[in-house]
Amino acid sequence: GLAIGVVGVALGTVLGIISALTVSDIIAWVEQVSGIQFLSGDVYFISYLPSQLLWSDVAIIISSALLLSFLATIYPAVRASKIQPAEALRYE
What we know:
Distance between the termini: 22 Å
Oligomer: single chain
Structural class: mainly alpha
Helix content: over 70%
Number of domains: 1
Number of strands: 0
Number of helices: 3
C-alpha cells in the first residue's frame, strides 16, 4: 500500500509540476486547435491563466500525500496482524 502511494505521489508531483509550468502554453494550443477562445478579454478581466509554482506548496503537498498514504496502511496492517494465517486462508 505504501509503495503504491509513494509511486503515485512521485508521478503526481512530476505531472503536476510540468502542467503548472506549461498551463498557459497548453491552453493556447487548445484554443488554437479548437478555434475557441476560453478566456476572452471582452468577457473576463484576464485573457490568460496565470500560474505560479511555489516550491513550498509542492513540499507541503508531497508531505501531506505521503503522510495520508502511510496512515491509510495502518488500519489494514493492524487488522491483518490480529488474524491467524490459517484462519485467513481457510476460505480461499
